[in-house]
Amino acid sequence: MDQSATSLNDKLRQLKERSGLSLRAIAREMGYSQASSIQRYFSADYPETGLPANFISKLLAVLPGKGEPAITRDEILALADGSVAEIQKKIPDLPKSGVPIVGEVAAGLWMEAALFETENSIESTVSYDIRFPAQAQYVVRVRGESLNRIAGNGDLLLCVDYLAAGIELKENDLVLVERSRDEGMTIERTAKRLVNLNGQSELMPESDDPRFQETIVFREGDADHTEVKIKAKIVMVFKPL
Fold this sequence. Notes:
Layout: H1 3-19, H2 23-29, H3 53-59, H4 73-77, H5 84-89, E1 100-105, E2 110-112, H6 113-118, E3 122-123, E4 137-142, E5 156-160, H7 162-165, E6 174-181, E7 186-197, E8 200-204, E9 216-218, E10 228-238
């Protein structure tokens, strides 16, 4: 086997282990639904001596800052096949400030709709994801245990307004959901896993708490079910120290 290919595999595997993320978690944060979408790049049989620019660009949105010591952008760029300049062209010019926190996600908590519309946003320490337009991104803070399989109380979720970003939702995506009642006067904001069961879309819980085990049937465009709306795709979970 070519020594340079072995070296590439070792470096990528070591970065994965250092990040503390599984292959499936890395794939999800890169925007893929399955680990198999990126598995070949992590295989010792991968024949190339460098990784393609589009893969590197997505990896730059996931690994830097994770692990101990923290993974750097230069470590990711060093794995590239081709010039760094080619990769940098694929990275949009995003704000240097953190993505704004616009509210909370807490299942079972109903609030007046106006509070969501007038809520003052504050800057977070979460960086913008290079895969999506800056104006389509925002952060919400988790309150309670309604997402405890993936995020705990106080954790931050980076959300992308999928309509504004022009992306399609896929099965197994984690999504931010709003439900309204009282003719839209009160709103509940929660997060669910989007799955397809028996030909229909369902929003499944991501909690071990028995209070939050409700499954929601989602019928996009159905006038009789306008009280349930998917607002955004959740692309990353951050756990503040």
